[in-house]
């Protein structure tokens, strides 16, 4: 039997920026929950198993029925970093998962990531990378506000990238990185940064605008609209739609 490729989907957030009673990852994206669509995206990209990290307080919203690959569930923590750590420890301790060759960490709230992006991340880890993240170019002009509160300065956006998930790692590397950063109490907003702090290089692969993060209510409206046309993206004759799919 070949080694598992495990995706850890973090879904333990409470969605304070989104608001509402039900955490955003359990809202519907045309018929199915956002997190369920994220599970399907991991399967479509070549993952063999998924661990969904949920919040104990919101567990009544979660159901894994109908998944194309085996799904395990564990409880998360009070920050994304802590939830990732708990997911990684679950994989590390699980007899069926601990032989994983590649581990991906994915936000439940990026449900529409295309299979080719997931596949590129898995491939880059398979080929020896210690930390892999998909990116899209920054298209807004970006300014940094000065710390003293007086004014701001423009940054050179040609050197900036917007980082997405899934991010990929060999299991031993991501376990070591998260344990060490938790011991040192160093916070990170993503997982490649955590591994980079151990001295590893971060490899970037091309991501997709479809892997947008649902953070605020408007994002879900946009996601629903994109979901309806996603099959045409990349095959459509219209240039705008084509570009959206590729970048
Ligand atoms: N304690 C947490 C916090 C976040 N997440 C997950 O990390 C991903 C990205 O987080 P974010 O978009 O910030 O979600 P929330 O924390 O739910 O949102 P907010 O910051 O607005 O409260 C989401 O899939 C979220 O469920 C998690 O598993 N555990
Ligand atoms: C991991 C991430 O999605 C990469 O862009 C992002 O850092 C998560 O940020 P959030 O504030 O926890 O949503």
UniProtKB/TrEMBL annotation:
InterPro entries: IspD (IPR001228), IspD/TarI (IPR034683), IspD/TarI_cytidylyltransf_bact (IPR050088), ISPD_synthase_CS (IPR018294), Nucleotide-diphossugar_trans (IPR029044). The record marks 17, 24 as: Transition state stabilizer. Signal peptide: none annotated. It comes from the Bacteria. One of its GO terms (molecular function) is 2-C-methyl-D-erythritol 4-phosphate cytidylyltransferase activity. Its EC number is 2.7.7.60. Pathway: Isoprenoid biosynthesis; isopentenyl diphosphate biosynthesis via DXP pathway; isopentenyl diphosphate from 1-deoxy-D-xylulose 5-phosphate: step 2/6. GO terms for biological process: isopentenyl diphosphate biosynthetic process, methylerythritol 4-phosphate pathway. CDD domains: CDP-ME_synthetase. The keyword Membrane does not apply. Belongs to the IspD/TarI cytidylyltransferase family. IspD subfamily. This is 2-C-methyl-D-erythritol 4-phosphate cytidylyltransferase. The lineage of its organism: Bacteria, Bacillati, Actinomycetota, Actinomycetes, Propionibacteriales.
């Amino acid at each position: 039997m070949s080694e598992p490729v495990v995706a850890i989907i973090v879904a333990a957030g409470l969605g304070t920026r989104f608001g509402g009673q039900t955490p955003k990852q359990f809202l519907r994206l045309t018929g199915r929950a956002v997190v369920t669509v994220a599970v399907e995206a991991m399967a479509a990209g070549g993952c063999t198993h998924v661990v969904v990290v949920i919040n104990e307080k919101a567990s009544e919203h979660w159901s894994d029925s109908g998944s194309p690959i085996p799904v395990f569930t564990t409880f998360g923590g009070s920050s994304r970093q802590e939830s990732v750590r708990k997911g990684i420890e679950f994989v590390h301790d699980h007899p069926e998962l601990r032989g994983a060759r590649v581990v991906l960490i994915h936000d439940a709230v990026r449900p529409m990531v295309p299979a080719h992006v997931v596949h590129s991340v898995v491939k880059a880890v398979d080929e020896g990378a210690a930390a892999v993240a998909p990116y899209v170019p920054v298209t807004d002009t970006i300014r940094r506000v000065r710390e003293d509160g007086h004014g701001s300065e423009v940054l050179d956006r040609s050197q900036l990238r917007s980082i997405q998930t899934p991010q990929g790692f060999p299991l031993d590397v991501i376990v070591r990185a998260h344990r060490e950063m938790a011991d040192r109490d160093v916070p990170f907003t993503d997982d490649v940064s955590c591994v980079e702090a151990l001295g590893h290089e971060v490899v970037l692969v091309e991501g997709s605008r479809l892997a947008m993060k649902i953070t605020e209510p408007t994002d879900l409206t946009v996601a629903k609209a994109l979901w309806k046309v996603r099959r045409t993206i990349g095959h459509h004759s219209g240039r705008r739609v084509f570009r959206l799919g590729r970048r």
